Amino acid sequence: MQNFSQETFVFQHEELLNIWEECGRKSDVVFEWVIKKIKNNELSLEKKDDIRKKIRNLFSYVTKKLSNCNRSLKRFKEKHATWISATAVISISDKDYEKPCSSKIGRPQVNYTCAKDRMKRKLANDLSSEQDHNTDLMVHATKISARKSNNKDLTFVLKHITSSPTRPNFRRDRTRVIDVQTSTA
After folding, report:
1. Number of domains within the chain
2. What is the tens place of the pLDDT at every residue in 40-49?
3. Is residue 52 domain-shared with residue 91, that is, in the same domain?
4. Which pTM value belongs to this model?
5. 42 phi and psi, to 5 degrees?
6. Lesser CB count within 10 Å: N end or C end of the chain?
7. Are residues 50 and 127 in the same domain?
């Protein structure tokens, strides 16, 4: 075992493998040995779980490769000499465990312009539900939004639809003009 700093510990794979073999091939015993070597009683549960996961992954690799060597540890050591000469680095720094509080779990929110048709319908329905399906408020909000986005045609149409006492006639007249233009074209 080597110490690079108080936060990082390096263990030889061979050393861990020998302990694993002596203790009846149990990774939990190796975990306890590593915790004793670290000599840090103030490890949080998250850090201990992370160390346990690293050790289990290490020995998961060993058991997988050991079956290819007819369960002979001697053959495993000969065949995987480069792996045995490598090291396992265990870091106990707090930097690894800081999680931002603002991160949200799940899919990211999609804005209206990037959404597909189904999502647009859902967003529009949610907005309408929040306002108790008040159509006058929705039309007024649409009018303000059109004016702010400098969409003059939509602003004109919405202004005349909402201010005209004969709104249905205005709508019918506009649709007739559009139908006549498309049929003659």
Report:
1. 2
2. 657 778 888 8
3. yes
4. 0.46
5. -100, 25
6. C
7. no
